[in-house]
Every structure is written in structure tokens, then in C-alpha cells.
């Protein structure tokens, strides 16, 4: 009976199980833990991998002979654009190497769309009666709070293993001209770890949309963040969209925040040459050029596209054991009981845990009272509202391995207690 699904147990069995969980939880609380599995930050050991950056750059001129210490070059230095163009499967003239945050670039793009419209817009988005975005869920919380800040309405579609529910996306985008765009984290998505297949990307690139200026904000923040040797290749969205006659539809973002230093790396935007001109035209109203000294040291630190891949393999050695530990503990403690399902990501920074409907907030609360900080339930949904109250985002990269183990044992205890409480209340 140790592995009989809880829902199939008799009332006395369930009561005995719940009493056992209460004892385990009381013991857990007594330990006075202070652990944190909330944000997807690199661990200090990962940041140390990029220590060489602090000794760079050697010299001050980029490959074109430009003095990086001076103003100019809004689109970023040539060698870094070329390096990331190769990594992102685009042409160098389609890439902008920017400041230290890709999220800021995303916000800037939305501001520009709002105030001026896109290259293919009839009017600025602010002059539309209503603007709606398609949001695959669970997704990245900051994408949603950014849209909320604009007053952009959000409609959700399920994020599956192979990408968003593309039938649902095509239906929404096809029938409603207020639907102006969608978010997508195409590789090792936050938080599901999903990888958008070439087929789904092709469908998104080619689908008919009621709005002529529909945008796919393709946030490839985890493009190179493999957890196994089986490295997923991101779908080639710019080529697919160009081939389908919608060259200006995708705007791609990438970042070295989780490659070198978080918040002190380089953000990238990639899109059609017209979109790049549109973006830098607006960017130039607020900047005379990016931090090219930081760009130069990044270019020297990596040396080549292969240098970036090799660097990411070092990250994998640091964080893959933490993900393995999450998987081990969830399997040992929860599998077969019918209480939870979870993702087994092959890259990225997160594990997405789905507990019994109506118990996620309770699990997070129990964990908090026992000294384990988890991302608030619902955080991966627009307005923080998970309609089924079942999803919890786990971020195991930052704490040391022993703390990941302790925190996950505690999470398992909280899941079992919350589930037995719920089942007893409904039987
Ligand atoms: N996009 C996604 C999907 C993220 O998870 C994050 C956070 N690491 C970012 C963007 C933020 O990137 P940046 O540091 O370049 O602003």
C-alpha cells in the first residue's frame, strides 16, 4: 500500500497517512530551516566561471578598429554581433548587441510599438481600442507583469512539451484583430522546459493573423542552457517567418545574463533588417551607444561561438546535479501516489511542479511556515492567477546542492500534507 494512489485509499487509511504527514511536517518545522528556491539565479560557482571577464578587455579597440571607450555604434560591436548571429542562426545584420538586460529591450520594443507601431502597423498600438497578447502558460512572470503595466489584455493557451498549443494560438490570432502578438520562450521555456519544435515554429510563422502586424516575441533566454549532452537546437524562426511571407513577425531576444554575469552581461535582439532599423531608430532617442567596453570583453572572453558552447558545458556540470536531485527526491517521495506531476527539463533553469488542483497555494504556505521560500503559487500565470491552483515553479540553480536536497525533501512533505488535507476534506 506504500504506493497506492491516495485517492484510492479508504478513509481510515487516508487518516493514518495524513497523521503521518502531520508528524513529518511538525518535525520539519522544528528544524528551523531557512531555504530559498524562488528565483532562477545563477549560483556563485557559476558566476566564478566567468571570473576571467574581470581581467578584460585587453586593449580598447574592436575588430573594426573602433575605440570602444567612446560613443557610437548603437547596434553593438561587429565581432559580438557576428558571434551571436552564428549561435542564434541569423545574419549579423539582423542582430543588435545591446545593454545588460534583454528584458529592458523587450520593454523598449513594446514601448516603441505602443507609441509608434511596428514597420507593418496601420497605427500606433496605443491608438487601438484594445490590444491583446497570447500567453502560453505556465510562463515567465515578468512577461506578464510587463503586459499588465501596459494594460494589454492577456489570453492564455497551454504550453505543451513541444511548444504552445498551436491550434489555439492560430484560432485566437486568426479571428481577432486586437490580438497583436504573443510571448514565447522557445528553448527550455521558463518554467516548463518545453522546446518549441521546428513544425510548431513553422506553423506560428505561417499562420494567418487578423492583425497585419502580429508579433512573436521570441525570448530565447535559455538557447544555450543545456542540462544534458543532447543539445536542443532552437527553431529557426526568422528564416521560417521570412519564407512564409511574414519577415517582420518575430522579434528574438537573447542574453548572457545566465552565461556570464546576471545583470552585467549583454542582451541581444534579432529580427528582420527593417525591424533592426526600426528598433535602433527608436533606441537612438535615448542612447548614443551601448557599453561597448563590456561587449568587447565578452567577445574576447568567449573568443568564438564554440567558446560560448564550451562555457555552457561548464555551467552544466555545476547545475545538472541539482536538477538530478530534484528529480530523485520528487520520484522517491511522490511518484505513484497520484499527488503530483513534474517536468524533467533537458535545459534551462526551472522545474514545473503540478500538484493536486486547489493545493498549490497551500503547499507554498506550508513551505513558508517551515522556512522554505517557494515562488508564490500562480506566479507563472497572468495576474498571478492559476485558475487550477496547481502549479509551482521550482528554481534549484542558486542554492548549494545540500540545500536543494533539504528544500526538496521539505517540499515533498508539504505536498503530501496538503494533498491529504484536501482529500480528507472532500471525502
Ligand atoms: N527572459 C526569460 C525567459 C528569463 O527567464 C529571464 C530571467 N533570467 C530574462 C528574460 C531576463 O533576462 P535579462 O537578464 O537579459 O534581462
UniProtKB/TrEMBL annotation:
InterPro entries: AspAT_Ic, PyrdxlP-dep_Trfase, PyrdxlP-dep_Trfase_major, PyrdxlP-dep_Trfase_small
SUPFAM superfamilies: PLP-dependent transferases
Segments passing through the bilayer: none
Pfam families: Asp_aminotransf (PF12897)
GO molecular-function term, one example from the UniProt record: DNA binding
Keywords: DNA-binding
The protein's name: DNA-binding transcriptional MocR family regulator
Species whose genome carries this gene: Pedococcus badiiscoriae
Upper taxonomic lineage: Bacteria, Bacillati, Actinomycetota, Actinomycetes, Micrococcales
